[in-house]
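Q: Fold this one first, please.
A: Sequence and structure below.
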Amino acid sequence: MSGMHQARLIDILLVEDDPGDVRLTREALKGNRVSNRLFVVEDGEEAMSFLRREGQYADAPRPDLVLLDLNLPRKNGREVLEEIKSTPDLRSIPVVVLTTSRQERDILHAYDLNANCYITKPVGWEQFLEVVGQIEHFWMGIVTLPVKGD
């Protein structure tokens, strides 16, 4: 039974169109203890194709966690969130909304759409690292994620 609790690789889908934020997230996750694979898509349409394993994403893994920027081209983060949470096969995937917006209505709206967590992007690199580390610690260290079924 000893193999039961061995750490598994965590698949994270980052939906983010800002190359700087993608780079920061990649760096931040690299420095953390949990083994993870980061997949990046740049807009909401691509995010849904990845999650639905359509086209070029036919072999995409089901992510353990989605980090979702709200301000995206083609299909915004709110629409993506709504679609994920209203799709029975996808709605159990935890979604962490990452955004620059501090507006109360955006925060409430994200939670109304069943976001699991809402984080306002900090400006500094140190803060950003800390936030990503906390997300990872919380979701990967404390919360028990559903076992992946394909």
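Q: Good. Now the second chain.
A: Here it is, same layout.
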Amino acid sequence: MKLAFLGAFAVSSLAVGIAASQSAGSATPPENASPIYGVTIPEGYRDWRFIAPAQEAPPLDELRAVLGNDIAVDAYKKGTLPFPDGSILVKLAYKRKQSTEFAPATVPGAPTTVQVMVKDSKKYPDSHGWGFGRFVDGKPVDVAQHETCLSCHVGNVRDHDYVFTRYAP
């Protein structure tokens, strides 16, 4: 009797474990995930390390700051290309505005986008190992805007593992 109970318990536990792993593997991306790639804004990214600033000329007229997780920062410091899987870069973009306290200075104005690049060569083999996300007010932008991410990176920075940003000294 005990053996039958233990056998039934083991089979039941195995079935629950298989069902859980199947549902996790087939889970749909969260509604805040980018179209095409399913990238989300990483938790805690505002505490990541600074990689470099950037300034976009008109018509965008933006100030940008690129942050990286520890894996990306380590790759930058060592000059590792291609970037290893697990590297994540986040670009914060703001409208440029003149400082009210010091006229020659430019300061961040209203936020425009948060852009995310995630390196996972198994998940994103068709985009050279990178997944992209572009978000406005924490929500992903439409598919058409995400379709331009890869083509711009492929067309301009193929020799730097498809990453524009260089590590600022």
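Q: Anything worth noting on the second one?
A: The helical segments are 2-25, 70-78, 143-156.
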